[in-house]
Amino acid sequence: MKNITPCRPKWKSTMTDRERFNNQMHYKPVDRCFNMEFGYWLENYTKWSIFTENGITNEAEANTFFSFDRIESVAGNVWLNPAFPETVIEETATTKILMNGDGLLAEVLKDGHATIPHYVKASIVTPDDWKRCKEERFRKDDPERKVDTAALKAEHPPDRDYPLGVHCGSMIGRVRNMLTFEGLAYACYDYPNMVEDMVETACVMVEDFLDQVLPHIDFDYASGWEDICFKNGPIVSVNFFNDVVVPRYKRINKKLKTAGIDIWYTDCDGDVRPLLKGFMEGGINTLFPFEVNGCAHPAELLAEYGKDLRIMGGVNKIQLGSGKAAIKAYLETLTPLVERGGYIPFCDHRCPPNVPPEDYLYYLDLKEEMFGMH
Hints:
Order of helices and strands: HHHHEEEEEHHEHHHEEEHEHEHEHHEH
């Protein structure tokens, strides 16, 4: 990685990042709030002068540039392997039809504008498609799924000073990616056994990865990715989620608990409230990045679920783009949550380019003033 000169000092502290994270997430005393952010839209790297003038091109560089606290995660090869070949199937003057790694044919704009692609067709539609895909691309004995635990231990030694997570993949979000939103909706009714087998396969892949790494590395938390909610709630029925997905979370959680891991977040956007009881029953006790506009102010759910629930994120990106007064007013609503513990504030998804860089720096300064050491 290239040398990055930070634009600001790290917040003053008397604890290590690892101690602080663990204490904050367990409602224990901390020297100050854990300081992190959840990245930026790709356009920010070409539009924000503070990035272009300092050669900042990705999130890792930005984290160093802003001197955020360090948080790391270890992930395994727990999905399609090999992925579908990424190829251009068709081209027009303004668009391309691409096959992506999940086997979807996606129509994307040629101008490079980042947007959700229009999916034209999925490779997996029927149980026969899935059977073939599973045999070719979800082999447990695939040598590429074997983890080099010695290298991981060398990279993340036991005496490290930063929190380290173990990534527990996706039980249904990546199945949705493979089938498409509409495809999953139809398949739950047309081929429920196929969908359940896809969830089961995803779970087995994660369990196999965890069996390889958990005995060797002392992790601080677990993470996951689902993205199965939007502003009107989940894209799968609550019954399906509770009957098919939650039992797999429980199996994973049993392994995590045995390894002493009791903080588990999953990255799910939109209104997660209809699924929250299921998440928590399955062992997922932390929401990330907690989108306010599609869901609620974080105080609402923290009040409802008490100290059983934690939240990471929840700084309303609409308010971040609405000027300094709006930023200050919103951060003031988060002060009691930071003081109570179990809550780490950052932009409630990747920060969009409509936030002026000077307002973003104001936001970082204000966070330090309000939530750092005084």
